[in-house]
Write a structure and sequence with these properties.
The complex is a heterodimer of chains A (113) and B (114). Chain A has 113 residues and is an all-beta fold. Helices cover 0% and strands 50% of the residues of chain A. Chain B is an all-beta fold. In chain B, the strands form two sheets. In chain B, strands 2, 4, 5, 6, 9, 10 and 11 form a seven-stranded mixed beta sheet that branches. A four-stranded antiparallel beta sheet of chain B has the order 1-3-8-7, with no helix packed on it. Classes of the chains: A mainly beta (113), B mainly beta (114).
């Protein structure tokens, strides 16, 4: 079945460092890919998405490109801030298969000033 | 516009007791979902309502879990009797579209079974 493999954390960075969180997937057909984020004390919220190959999702300085050839959707940010400290989840949605969000384990990010 | 609200935010119960979690979706969202995250594991789908009907309940672990959605508005998830392995965070989400991965989540209800 469909699955998502996400880089395990925790990840600790200094402010203004470059961030990459790796995410790869296995799926039949053409799933949509998502990054969700959970800030401390808050619910999950959509950070960005991509619905087809080569699409780039972006939001709040974060980017991820849907790479079908490598089945990847890595999250990147050029300069992290303390306020980016959160848990990041990669997920896929396959309308042609099970039609529910399939999640990675989540990666906890801490950013030090 | 109010978001998805869940309560209680945290519940601590003894094994064998009953707990009921409640979710109020965003107004006008016909689709309501329950997901669960057990510590150290992925978030897993439990079930999906379209209005008051269960569209997909394939993720419900066993018959100790009962979900309802009265009148297509709020939903409850009852665990009876609770077991230790039921501990985790229960997320509720809603959406307007029936087939989408773009969901609006609540803050979650943390359940601890002792």
């Amino acid at each position: 079945g469909d699955s998502v493999t996400q880089m395990e954390g925790p990840v600790t960075l200094s402010e203004e460092a470059f961030l990459t969180i790796n995410c790869t997937y296995t799926a039949t057909g053409y799933p949509s890919l998502f990054w969700y984020v959970q800030y401390p004390g808050e619910g999950l919220q959509l950070l960005l998405k991509a619905t087809k190959a080569d699409d780039k999702g972006s939001n709040k300085g974060f980017e991820a490109t849907y790479r079908k050839e490598t089945t990847s959707f890595h999250l990147e940010k050029g300069s992290v801030q303390v306020s980016d400290s959160a848990v990041y989840f990669c997920a896929l949605y396959n309308a042609g298969n099970n039609r529910k969000l399939i999640w990675g384990l989540g990666t906890s990010l801490g950013v030090n000033p | 516009e109010a978001g998805v609200t869940q309560f209680p935010s945290h519940s601590v119960i003894e094994k064998g007791q009953t707990v009921t979690l409640r979710c109020d979706p965003i107004s006008g969202h016909d689709n309501l979902y329950w997901y669960r995250r057990v510590m150290g594991k992925e978030i897993k789908f439990l079930l999906h309502f379209v209005k008051e009907s269960k569209q997909d309940e394939s993720g419900m672990p066993n018959n100790r879990f009962l979900a309802e959605r009265t009148g297509g508005t709020y939903s409850t998830l009852k665990v009876q009797p609770a077991e230790l392995e039921d501990s985790g965070v229960y997320f509720c989400a809603s959406s307007q579209s029936r087939q989408t991965g773009e969901l609006f989540f609540g803050e979650g209800s943390r359940l601890t079974v002792l």
